[in-house]
Predict the structure.
Amino acid sequence: MENTYIPFPMKVEKIIDENPDRSLKTFDLSYVNNADKFDYLPGQFCEFSILGKGESPFGIASSPTEKDILKFTVNRTGSVTNEIHYLRIGDIVGIRGPLGNWYPVEKFKGGNIVIIGGGFAFTTLRSLLIYLLENRDDYGEITVIYGARNPDLLIYKEELKIWDKRDDLTLHLTIDTPVDNWKGHCGFVPTITKEVAPDPTSWAVVCGPPIMIKFTLPVLKEIGFPDKKIYTSLERRMKCGIGKCGRCGIGSKYVCIDGPVFSYEELKNIPEAF
Ligand SMILES: Cc1cc2nc3c(=O)[nH]c(=O)nc-3n(C[C@H](O)[C@H](O)[C@H](O)COP(=O)(O)OP(=O)(O)OC[C@H]3O[C@@H](n4cnc5c(N)ncnc54)[C@H](O)[C@@H]3O)c2cc1C
Ligand code: FES
């Protein structure tokens, strides 16, 4: 029987520093063995391990349409993420996945979509956005509202410039406080969401720090979004990632198998969710 705790090897192909203080790095990994290649959908995550150092969950930042690579953006915060930041091109890491559920891209078909992100949690939103753009005819208007404390902390800066120029996507970038030469919005993501006032018949996908999610959901409700059309992705401390250890419980659910993607309809009566 297959042991779901055993990771398979992937090779580090590319490392991108996302910000000047080098606390955020994006890793492109390639499969060492073709037999390990897997299908996934935007919103899913993997356990990323370094032999002898430990493993941690990270949202998949690549889109399934980007064949042969898996992309993860890792914020350096503690022991495992420090070790990941020491990786060099050619190093071999361990991956378990894909884990968890995904944004319901089939259900979104034919609808308008608003993607609302904060900070480095934009990872799985990048996966979703690239997927939607690669299947552009299946979806209506796409609006992206993405904020960070300052311009340095926005990730995927080169792609943001490209997305900004596209005429089939509306991109609103925001930073918390004004700086020289900044042409986007200034203000917190919930405030800018209120200003932008996306069409409430759209599907809304919100991912970011808990405080951002907590204050953005009431804004969407005020604009008129129904609970079942708002999706969010939760982060909890995890160990097994497959519903065995009980570490990631919220209410009657486990974030690792019932999530990490949930509709607001599912979460609104679980106070510890936010
Ligand atoms: C489904 C999912 C997807 C994730 N995607 C990403 C991603 O794309 N990029 C990314 O950088 N991180 C992501 N994370 C968070 C990441 O897993 C943790 O930052 C990582 O496990 C920290 O490991 P560490 O050993 O370096 O830190 P530790 O040494 O274990 O902890 C360092 C500090 O971070 C805090 N911390 C650790 N994990 C979490 C957590 N899950 N939530 C809140 N605080 C935490 C600890 O309390 C401590 O203060 C995700 C988490 C989940 C559950
Ligand atoms: S991490 Fe073990 S049950 Fe979710």
Notes: The helical segments are 79-85, 105-108, 123-134, 157-165, 189-196, 210-223, 255-258, 264-267. The pocket of FE2/S2 (inorganic) cluster (ligand 2) is lined by residues 238-241, 243-248, 254, 256 (CB under 6 Å). Residues 210-223 form the longest helix (14 residues).
